[in-house]
Amino acid sequence: MDLSTIKQRLVEGDAQGTVDAAREALASDIPAEAILRDALIPGMEEVGDLFARNEYFVPELLLSARAMHTALDVLRPLLVGGGYQPAGKVVMGTVQGDLHDIGKKLVAIMLEGTGFEVIDLGTNVAPERFVEATRENGATLVGLSALLTTTLPAMEETVRAIHQAEVAGEVRVMVGGAPVTDSFARQIGADGYAPDASTAVALARRLLGSTAG
Q1: Which residues pair with 118 in a beta bridge?
Q2: Long-range contacts of range 58-64, CB-CB < 8 Å, 24 or more positions apart?
Q3: What is the rounded distance in angstroms from the CA atom of residue 48 to the CA atom of residue 46?
Q4: Is the pLDDT assigned to residue 58 strictly greater than 60?
Q5: How many domains does the chain have?
Q6: Residue 82: what pLDDT?
Q7: CB burial class (10 A; 0-12, 13-18, 19+) of residue 70?
Q8: Residue 69 shares a structural domain with residue 132
Q9: What is the side-by-side strand order in the sheet with 172-176?
Q10: What local confidence, expressed as pLDDT, does residue 13 receive?
Q11: Residue 20 CB burial class (10 angstroms; 0-12, 13-18, ≥19)
């Protein structure tokens, strides 16, 4: 069984084809972790590259994400049993007062697709809820989104709450959204800013790499 078939079907957004190929690989005694590491994650990385180059758009990204999640439903019990560790745990949400979530969802999709475990808190999330979820899940990265300029103070308040909590020092914070800039991110004490989903994946890897050890 050629793992490139799984990857290609994922890139094409063929959910059923991706699952069928994954099951065929499992039947050929290819470990679930190898299917994830060598087919599904590289496939979503390619989708992210296509998205970044404006060759893929939101519909294509969502189709590939559905294929990824469908295949993961098959692999997950085997991954858990095999002791597979995600690339990192990320708590994500749109800050208090903001109900927009399409950008956040795209980032969550890309992070999950490239091996991260994402705890998505949704929209209108209070600062204390971010802190609570980070503590509960043992997350080492928090992603904050805002689309409204009026909710930027809530983003700043959330960063401050995380820094003041007992998780401070162990948790990195990345921010994004239409009104957010790199300079604003630095001003409020965030560890990084990502303008789009593909950049967010690279930033997450860099930030979590800096927490290693």
Answers
A1: 90
A2: 58/102, 58/106, 60/13, 61/106, 61/109, 61/110, 61/197, 62/109, 63/13, 63/15, 64/10, 64/11, 64/12, 64/13, 64/113
A3: 5
A4: yes
A5: 2
A6: 75
A7: middle
A8: no
A9: 117-120, 89-94, 141-145, 172-176, 192-193
A10: 97
A11: middle
Cα 12 from chain centre? 20
Give the position of tokens 């597979």. 84
Phi, psi of 152 (to 5 degrees): -60, -35
Two tokens, residue 13? 């957004």
Which residues, in sequence order, are bridge partners of residue 95?
Answer: 125
Examine the domain organization and report whether 103 and 130 are in the same domain. yes
CATH number, domain containing residue 146: 3.40.50.280
Q: Tokens for 163? A: 């820094």
- Which one of 81, 97, 121 terminates a domain? 81
Q: Based on the domain organization, do 144 and 111 belong to the same domain?
A: yes
Q: Of 51, 81, 111, which marks where a domain is finished?
A: 81
Per-residue pLDDT reduced to its tens digit, 121-175: 999 999 999 999 999 999 999 999 999 999 999 999 999 999 999 776 789 999 9
